[in-house]
Amino acid sequence: MNQSTTFTILLGGELRLTDRLRAAVSGSRFIAADGGMRHAIALGAEPELWVGDFDSTPADLLEAFPDVPKQPYPAAKAATDGEIAVSEAIDRGAVRLILAGAMGGERSDHAIQHLLYGLQLAEKGFDVLLTSGDEEAVPLPPGKLELDLPAGSLFSVLGFSDLTGLFIENARYPLRDFHLPFGASRTISNVAEGAVRFSLGSGRAIVLARPYDLSGV
Hints:
about 220 residues; alpha/beta; Rossmann fold; Jelly Rolls; 2 domains; 13-stranded mixed β-sheet; 13 strands; elongated; EC 2.7.6.2; thiamine binding; transferase
């Protein structure tokens, strides 16, 4: 049995297969949430579980994975398919969670909720990455974080509260012991100069990076 503690949760948003995405999910276990199963085809993955109400799952996708165990839920439920899938991964020993297909797509409410949920999971001690392939989001709770980004790629820090003691190093626009009021745009559209180092004293934030967008060069 695969004992990996890294789980990739296949969600219904957009997902482009990139080298960084391949590297991130390599060796992980997979759980699909409803229509997110379509990404399993591109990734060449065989999820160990498929959860959801299956309201966004076409018949041909159901036929393509007849052997994957399904865990159906009614459409009128108290959590999203993605949250249910994450709970199943945690029950199976997840330590690192990759939410693939967490951003973009037709439902901005789902995309925003994924960011908030990712931050909650990080505060509980999980290592979390949200990705569309083109964009990557990593929670930044109080503490230190280093992201390996290509020089010239774009990134932003999104504050979900007032931020205090914010440091950004190895970027075009560094900050030192900065106070960012909630809703302020000062930390939008920075440019990496290689691996970027962050530190946060207090508050809740997410780093949203575009590793393949070198328009900041």
